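Friendly challenge for the regulars: who can give me the structure tokens for this chain first? No prize, just bragging rights.
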Amino acid sequence: MPDHRLPVRRRRVARTLLARLGFAIGRRLPLRRRVVLAVSHAPRPTGNLAIIGEELRRRHPDLEVVTVSMYRPARFLGRFAPLLGAVRSGYHLATARVVVVDDYYFPMYVVRPRPGTMRIQVWHAAGAFKMFGYSVVAKRFGADLDMIRHVRLHSNYSLALVSSMSVARHYAEAFDQPPGLFTSRIGFPRADILVDPARKAAGEARARAAFPGLEGRTVVLYAPTFRGETIGRARYEDLLDLEELHRVLGDGYAVLLRRHPFVRERPMIPQGLEGFAIEASAYPDVNELMLISDILVTDYSSVIYEFALLGRPILFLAPDEQAYELERGFYFDFRAEAPGLIVETTSALAAVIRDGVFDLERVRAFARASFDVADGNATRRLVEEVIMPALAGETVTAATLEAPATGRD
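First reply, four minutes later:
Bragging rights claimed.
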């Protein structure tokens, strides 16, 4: 029988060789005072990487900031994009003093880091909800065992941010890295927009301008995670019955539909419900959508952590919990620790929303437990206390960040 893993293995080998080629070229050159924002699954920086890039350009406009991506576009020639990205990534990994990633980033794991460079992991999700990395090797969603035998995933980080040290052990397991790599002292950059008054006002104004029809209505943000055994096969599971939700709630409500970034198919809006249900997946920042939303409905998405900072109701539409546990699994007891009511049908969900009885103290307690620092200054601290010293040749680690008497606020 044919070995269907061969194409995957060949792509891995090709990307490895090309990343190493780019690295070999780059290491012949001097290190540059440059920050590289490395993106795996999107054409451009979003979330943490986007806000970090904006802060760098605002505070240090003379600084060179470069984006590299391993994203594969859907078009035919898109199959070559990751190969070209591997060469370019290898080159920048060798020449830049600072590289920031927010996800799995293959080129980083197949080269030997050059002395004098710093590689920062600012994982795209707060908290620790769904299992990932080495935690899911035995799950259906788990990494390819052939890949793990040849590539040490999540290696070569100099520093990794977590929103709370209470979840550092989960990240240490998922990355197969020592706990001392992680720090929560900096905070979580993309959460700044939810707590810093100036960023919050600006973000809310942008979102309201993009969706002007929401004034005077109760807005429900529906943001489920993806399904599928691999990211490349991510799909949208249509669990929400929009017609039933509209029947119960009426036009005084609006639903913003936000599919997971890995899912390329658009959710279907039934005819006649276009004003009630609004496709919002193309909007660049889900946190700005949170600012104009009164209620979050999800299944197993990590957006619950950031939305909890707003102290607003969170509900879970999760009829396939057992199947998802087999596919992916959770780091916490979903039934006991979820910061909101879990329902299995749209009818039950609609009734809860209509009745408007929510346990907001549970939401606030969840937020307090999930963020050691949430003061709106995480991005500034990362730039000024980590990135800029690293560009100057200083060694910055989780231990040095925790050291006393440094003059930091």
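Residues 198 and 376 are 9 Å apart (CA to CA). Residues 6-188+375-402 form a domain with the Rossmann fold fold (CATH 3.40.50.11820). Your move, everyone else.
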